[in-house]
TrEMBL record:
This is N-acylneuraminate cytidylyltransferase. Keywords: Nucleotidyltransferase, Transferase. It comes from the Eukaryota. Residues 1-42 are annotated as: Disordered. The keyword Nucleotidyltransferase applies. PANTHER family: HAD SUPERFAMILY MEMBERS CMAS AND KDSC, N-ACYLNEURAMINATE CYTIDYLYLTRANSFERASE. The keyword Endoplasmic reticulum does not apply. SUPFAM superfamilies: Nucleotide-diphospho-sugar transferases (SSF53448). GO terms for molecular function: N-acylneuraminate cytidylyltransferase activity. InterPro entries: CMP-NeuNAc_synthase, Cytidylyl_trans, Nucleotide-diphossugar_trans.
Length: 190
């Protein structure tokens, strides 16, 4: 999961162009009026899965079944089962992906054609999402193509952001591969 935080420091403005809040999410609190006066509310952490319908390699790969479950269903289950998100969203431009997302209990952000192009970046789609969802303070960008993601992985990330003061967290995988390839020269393999 990658985290995108709105307004982490006073020197950075958030994607909506409003002044930064100036405090990290761990310390940022909002007072509630009425009966809970003085009670502080933690920042709204939203899971966001980007799932475009126009994949060129494998069309609609995000809803292809893997072990009987749509690919995106695996990460939606992990996000929901983690219990750390105030909301779980799928950003998509496709009706079938929207239907699957809703079947798994996610909310859907219909992304614009401007951020649904092959040349659009994940950051473009995240910024658009934040522009429409003012309630969200922190975005956990979860890759739709990570079926082995476990809820405890997401719990650890949320803890790192909320309790340990990290402003961003991302996962990596060590990859071992050969750095050579066959070259044929005059009928001989080198």
């Amino acid at each position: 999961m990658d985290s995108v935080e709105k307004g982490a420091t006073t020197s950075v403005s958030n994607p909506r162009g409003r002044p930064s809040r100036g405090r990290p999410p761990k310390l940022q609190r909002n007072s509630r009026g009425g009966q809970g006066r003085g009670v502080e509310k933690p920042p709204h952490l939203a899971a966001l899965i980007l799932a475009r319908g126009g994949s060129k390699g494998i069309p609609l790969k995000n809803i292809k079944h893997l072990a009987g479950v749509p690919l995106i269903g695996w990460v939606l289950r992990a996000a929901l089962d983690s219990g750390v998100f105030q909301s779980v969203w799928v950003s998509t431009d496709h009706d079938e992906i929207e239907n699957v997302a809703k079947q798994f209990g996610a909310q859907v952000h219909r992304r614009s054609s401007e951020v649904s192009k092959d040349s659009s970046t994940s950051l473009d789609a995240i910024i658009e999402f934040l522009n429409y969802h003012n309630e969200v303070d922190i975005v956990g960008n979860i890759q739709a193509t990570s079926p082995c993601l476990h809820p405890t992985d997401l719990q650890k990330v949320a803890e790192m952001i909320r309790e340990e003061g990290y402003d961003s967290v991302f996962s990596v995988v060590r990859r071992h591969q050969f750095r050579w390839s066959e070259i044929q020269k005059g009928g001989n393999v080198l």
